């Protein structure tokens, strides 16, 4: 790693941000060694996730300085040597857990990029949960090593510690990932994760603010009720927050959903601090983690819907010619038939096959053959009416559905298409395409498959008649 003035400035900015976030968290300490909400955990996790081992030193320095800052804020006088020892132990405990968990999480997330968004979410949640748990244990061990005289009740310490780190990581790491990408814009590999989580439709800022207000109002009602009515079960009403949060997830961009989660988590911490509700703090933080995890899975839904749409389009479109596939043509035909039967209108079907197409392939090569197929499909698309349908039957055979045309009208259409088939240019030579056509009109209650068989018979007759002909079936 070469340290340029620019990278030095970036690392310094990161350390300053870490300390600022840390200061905000310790304001919400509700139990010795446990912040109600510990966003620096999210920042360290995000840093290792994106920067890998390059985050080791800056995270260590930030954690080291925060311990010294804590001693400075604390009125207890502790020797400088003791302060340094604690700072080193805490720094190590922090970087071991977050370095290991965050870097591994980053590795697995990058492997999954652009492929499976729900899988990326559970990788994030799994590693986030395990890393914060590891950080809790390594932190408590560091606490003991830093001052063996300190009486720590492990059983009452680990859960509030873990849940604070967990909330800080689950809720804040996604925001910090974006912040870190702003500090290190060259981390472009990661922008894909956010691009693919964009909701298809984004509402106005005002609508978003209204949703945020509803969320905050509901939180205020729960908090005040929990504080004023002597019923501990009321704290569980905080799970209702998942309703407005999911409303935001489904109707806003992922960025807004993430911002809303961060604001809610900050508001919960502030309310608990303001009303002195440390007894229910854990319930609120657990609820927040569950709401955040749900919200991330919810974000995958618009993304999956978009992917589905793309797959559906690929499924119904012929890759070469861009017209619809045989299967989709049949499905559309079934729908048209139902409508036309109701309206008592005729429907006709053409099937045509390019003449001596094999010779084109054999003489000029498959790419010229492909070009001929594309030209034929595009030309037919232009020659038919808006309500007509053209599809590829397979190979060099095409289908055209003609609603509101009876057999003689459809025959005339086939003659017109035959006449106007395109000419392709090969090595400066003009090569006119010709085709043979089979035409039928749907009979009452006739199934599409039966109609296709009749049209194919007519096509074969057109071929036998010498090609470049139109044959009809009665
Ligand atoms: N280039 C290209 N060729 C294809 C494609 N699909 C099928 N073919 C070829 O199209 C040819 C179809 O030939 P046929 O319809 O059996 O016969 P033909 O030479 O057109 O003769 P007639 O239909 O009897 O006039 C075969 O040589 C296939 O290999 C494709 O997507 N691209």
TrEMBL record:
<feature type="transmembrane region" description="Helical">
    <location>
        <begin position="87"/>
        <end position="109"/>
    </location>
</feature>
<feature type="transmembrane region" description="Helical">
    <location>
        <begin position="208"/>
        <end position="225"/>
    </location>
</feature>
<keyword id="KW-1003">Cell membrane</keyword>
<dbReference type="InterPro" id="IPR007895">
    <property type="entry name" value="MASE1"/>
</dbReference>
<feature type="transmembrane region" description="Helical">
    <location>
        <begin position="231"/>
        <end position="250"/>
    </location>
</feature>
<feature type="transmembrane region" description="Helical">
    <location>
        <begin position="282"/>
        <end position="305"/>
    </location>
</feature>
<dbReference type="InterPro" id="IPR029787">
    <property type="entry name" value="Nucleotide_cyclase"/>
</dbReference>
<dbReference type="InterPro" id="IPR050469">
    <property type="entry name" value="Diguanylate_Cyclase"/>
</dbReference>
<dbReference type="Pfam" id="PF00990">
    <property type="entry name" value="GGDEF"/>
</dbReference>
<keyword id="KW-0472">Membrane</keyword>
<keyword id="KW-1133">Transmembrane helix</keyword>
<dbReference type="Pfam" id="PF05231">
    <property type="entry name" value="MASE1"/>
</dbReference>
<dbReference type="InterPro" id="IPR000160">
    <property type="entry name" value="GGDEF_dom"/>
</dbReference>
<feature type="transmembrane region" description="Helical">
    <location>
        <begin position="166"/>
        <end position="187"/>
    </location>
</feature>
<feature type="transmembrane region" description="Helical">
    <location>
        <begin position="12"/>
        <end position="30"/>
    </location>
</feature>
<dbReference type="GO" id="GO:0052621">
    <property type="term" value="F:diguanylate cyclase activity"/>
</dbReference>
<feature type="transmembrane region" description="Helical">
    <location>
        <begin position="257"/>
        <end position="276"/>
    </location>
</feature>
<feature type="transmembrane region" description="Helical">
    <location>
        <begin position="42"/>
        <end position="72"/>
    </location>
</feature>
<keyword id="KW-0812">Transmembrane</keyword>
<protein>
    <recommendedName>
        <fullName>diguanylate cyclase</fullName>
        <ecNumber>2.7.7.65</ecNumber>
    </recommendedName>
</protein>
<dbReference type="GO" id="GO:0005886">
    <property type="term" value="C:plasma membrane"/>
</dbReference>
<dbReference type="InterPro" id="IPR043128">
    <property type="entry name" value="Rev_trsase/Diguanyl_cyclase"/>
</dbReference>
<feature type="transmembrane region" description="Helical">
    <location>
        <begin position="121"/>
        <end position="146"/>
    </location>
</feature>
<feature type="domain" description="GGDEF">
    <location>
        <begin position="345"/>
        <end position="474"/>
    </location>
</feature>
């Amino acid at each position: 790693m070469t340290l340029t003035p620019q990278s030095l400035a970036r690392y310094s900015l990161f350390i300053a941000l870490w300390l600022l976030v840390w200061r905000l968290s310790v304001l919400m300490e509700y139990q010795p060694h446990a912040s109600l909400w510990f966003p620096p955990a999210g920042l360290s996790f995000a840093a290792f996730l994106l920067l890998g081992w390059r985050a080791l030193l800056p995270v260590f320095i930030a954690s080291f300085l925060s311990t010294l800052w804590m001693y400075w804020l604390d009125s207890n006088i502790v020797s400088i040597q003791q302060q340094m020892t604690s700072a080193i132990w805490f720094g190590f405990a922090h970087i071991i857990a977050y370095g290991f968990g965050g870097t591994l999480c980053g590795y697995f997330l990058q492997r999954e990029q652009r492929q499976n968004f729900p899988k990326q979410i559970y990788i994030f949640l799994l590693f986030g949960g395990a890393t914060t748990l590891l950080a809790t244990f390594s932190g408590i061990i560091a606490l003991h090593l830093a001052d063996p005289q300190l009486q720590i009740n492990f059983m009452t310490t680990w859960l509030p510690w873990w849940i604070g780190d967990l909330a800080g990581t689950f809720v804040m790491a996604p925001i910090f990932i974006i912040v870190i990408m702003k500090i290190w814009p060259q981390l472009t590999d990661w922008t894909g994760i956010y691009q693919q989580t964009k909701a298809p439709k984004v509402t106005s800022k005002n609508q978003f603010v209204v949703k945020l207000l509803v969320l905050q109002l509901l939180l205020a009602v729960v908090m005040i009720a929990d504080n004023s009515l002597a019923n501990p079960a009321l704290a569980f009403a905080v799970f209702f927050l998942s309703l407005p949060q999911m409303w935001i997830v489904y109707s806003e961009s992922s960025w807004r959903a993430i911002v809303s989660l961060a604001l809610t988590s900050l508001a919960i911490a502030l309310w608990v601090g303001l009303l002195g509700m440390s007894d229910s703090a854990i319930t609120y933080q657990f609820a927040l983690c569950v709401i955040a995890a749900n919200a991330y899975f919810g974000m995958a839904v618009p993304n999956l819907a978009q992917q589905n749409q793309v797959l559906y389009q690929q499924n119904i479109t012929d890759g070469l010619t861009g017209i619809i596939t045989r299967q989709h043509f049949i499905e559309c035909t079934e729908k048209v038939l139902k409508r036309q039967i109701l309206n008592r209108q005729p429907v006709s079907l053409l099937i045509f096959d390019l003449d001596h197409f094999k010779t084109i392939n054999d003489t000029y090569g498959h790419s010229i053959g492909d070009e001929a197929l594309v030209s034929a499909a595009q030309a037919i698309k232009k020659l038919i009416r808006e309500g007509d349908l053209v599809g590829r039957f397979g190979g060099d055979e095409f289908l055209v559905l003609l609603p509101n045309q009876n057999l003689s009208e459809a025959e005339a259409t086939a003659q017109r298409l035959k006449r106007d088939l395109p000419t392709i240019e090969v090595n400066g030579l003009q090569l006119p395409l010709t085709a043979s056509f089979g035409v039928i009109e749907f009979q009452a209650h006739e199934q599409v498959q039966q109609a296709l068989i009749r049209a194919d018979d007519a096509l074969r007759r057109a071929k036998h008649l010498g090609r470049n002909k139109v044959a009809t079936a009665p």
